[in-house]
Specification:
This protein is about 40% helix and about 25% strand. The protein is an alpha/beta fold. The strands form two sheets. The protein has a six-stranded mixed beta sheet, sandwiched between helices. It has a four-stranded antiparallel beta sheet with strand order 2-1-4-5, covered by helices on one side. Helix 3 packs parallel to helix 6.
């Protein structure tokens, strides 16, 4: 049996002497949207930062298409096909929307292909096309998230990781972004979504994991997680 497209095995990570992740096992198959849900401080952001090479694991492995990226730097993770849309968007202030998007393609060498993908992102997010020359930091929250996701797509990822899609956004903005993520996924990009809005996460994802105090406590289809009493009580507000 072949290995999953993306696989984390017994991953541990943290900050100095403070261990945050404990023996994490997680997979994403080709064509999947997988969500990771949990409360503040559960280890969600630490996991994404470790996957993308911003932090080094202390144990375990991370593989994409059989290639080991655990412990490598962020550049190797990116060139291996992992793009990270961080919590809070982290756009480059004073730079235009267009230039922020182009920053996502800085490792790519073929200018023609980059222009084609820039046009694709602008078509995907018409509001970005309307504001292409505007300082990205002056966009609304929803527009900034569009720009951050578009910047991630500009690297031509195989796996797009999004940390807190809906944070601080109006419901309509979340709805529009969710619709676009489904289209992105249909285009062949797998997605690992970290999201505190559990219903949004489960509506989007095929499967999900629950992380609590640095450990995976549940792993099942989105529908099974939605019906799991412990998950409903802790994260959805219904017993």
């Amino acid at each position: 049996m072949s290995d999953p497209f993306f696989q984390i095995s017994q991953l541990e990570s943290g900050y100095g002497e403070i261990q945050v992740l404990w023996g994490i096992d997680l997979t994403v198959n080709e064509g999947e949207i997988v969500c990771l849900i949990g409360s503040n401080g559960a280890g969600k952001t630490t996991l994404l930062r470790t996957i993308s090479g911003l932090m080094s694991p202390t144990a375990g492995s991370i593989k994409i298409e059989g290639r080991v990226i655990a412990g490598a730097d962020a550049r190797l993770a990116l060139t291996s096909g992992v793009a990270h849309v961080p919590e809070g968007r982290r756009l480059f202030r004073t730079m235009s929307v267009k230039d922020n998007l182009l920053m996502g393609a800085y490792i790519r060498k073929a200018p023609g292909d980059v222009e084609d993908d820039l046009e694709r992102v602008m078509t995907m997010f018409p509001r970005l096309a309307e504001r292409a020359n505007q300082d990205a930091s002056t966009l609304s929250g929803g527009e900034q998230q569009m720009c951050a996701i578009g910047r991630g797509i500009m690297s031509r990822p195989k796996l797009l990781m999004i940390d807190e899609l809906s944070l601080g956004l109006a419901p309509r903005a979340v709805e529009l972004l969710s619709e676009t993520l489904i289209e992105i996924n249909k285009s062949g990009i797998a997605i690992l979504l970290v999201e505190q809005d559990v219903m949004t996460a489960l509506d989007l994802a095929h499967r999900g994991y629950v992380i609590d105090r640095g450990r995976i406590t549940f792993a099942a289809s989105s529908e099974e997680l939605r019906q799991e009493p412990a998950v409903r009580e802790a994260y959805i507000g219904a017993a």
